[in-house]
Amino acid sequence: MRRKHRERRAFGGIVLLLVGCLLILEKDAWAQARSALPSAPQPQSSLLNQSPGDQAGNSNPQNQAPQNQNPQNPPPAPLPAETNKDENPAQAAGEKTKELTLEAAELTKKVGEQALLKARDWEASWITGVYVKQEEERIPLTGAERRKIYFRQTLTTPGPYMKRMFEAGFDQARGVPSQWDDGWGGYAERFASREGQFISANTLAALGDAALKYEVRYDQCRCSGFALRTRHAVIRNFLTYDENGAWRPQWALYGGAFGGGAISTAWKPHPRNVLSNGGLAMLGQAGYGALLNFVIEFARDVNAKLGARK
Prior knowledge:
This protein has about 300 residues and is mainly alpha-helical.
C-alpha cells in the first residue's frame, strides 16, 4: 500500500509539473501575441463623418466611404480564439503520461509472472538434469549425445557446482577432514576436493556406460500410484538398460563412484585409505542417487501443484 501511495504521489507531482510548465509557456505566448497587435483606432461618431445627404438617407455609393476601408486605419487583427478545454495541451500531456505509466506497470506485471512460472518450471533445469519423460520414447543414445550429456551434467551447467558447494558446506559443518580449518580457506579446500572427486567419478562412469552401451538418463515410470513410482525411482538407481532395453546393474555408475573416492585420497590429508574412501563414495551414490531419482519422478506433479505449465 505504501508503494502504491508513493507511486500515485510521484505521478501527481509529474502531472502538476507538466501543467505548470505548459501554463507558463501559454501565458508568455499570449502576452507576445497581444503586444504584436496594432493599436485600435479611436472610435468616432458616424454622424460627424457623414454628409447631410447621407444623414437624409442618400444611398449614393460615391458618397459612402466606410471607415474600415481607409488604408491608414487597417482593421484590427482578430484575437486568437480560446483553446478548447478538450484540447488543452496540459490535460493531453497528463493523459499521455498516465497511459505510459499504466502500460509500464502492466508490462512489469507480465514480466514478473513469466519469471515466476519459469522459476517454478524446473523439471529439466539444473536440479534434475536430463531425463526421459513419461510420455517420451526412450531411444538409445549416440556418441555425440552422450558427450553432450556428460558435459552438461559435469561442467557446463551451474547445477553440479551448486551441488558441490552444498556438499562442501556439509563437510565444513562436520569438520571433515579435521586437518582443514573452519574458515573460508578450509571451505575452498573442501569444495575443490568435492569437485575433483565428482569430475573423476562422472568421467569414469561416462566412459564405462559408453563402453557397455548403458542408458545414463533416468526415465520416469509409466505406472501410476505413489508406491509404484517410488519403487521405480529407487530401483533405477541400481539398475539401468542396455542398448536392447534389458535390465542391467549400474556397474559403470558405482564403479565410477568408487574410483572417484579412491582418486580423492591423492589430495586428502593423512590418514588415507583407498578402500574406505571408495566405499563411502559408493554409499553416497546409493543415497543421493535414489533421492535425485525421486525428485525427478515427481517433479512434474510438484510443478502442476505450483501452477507451472505441463
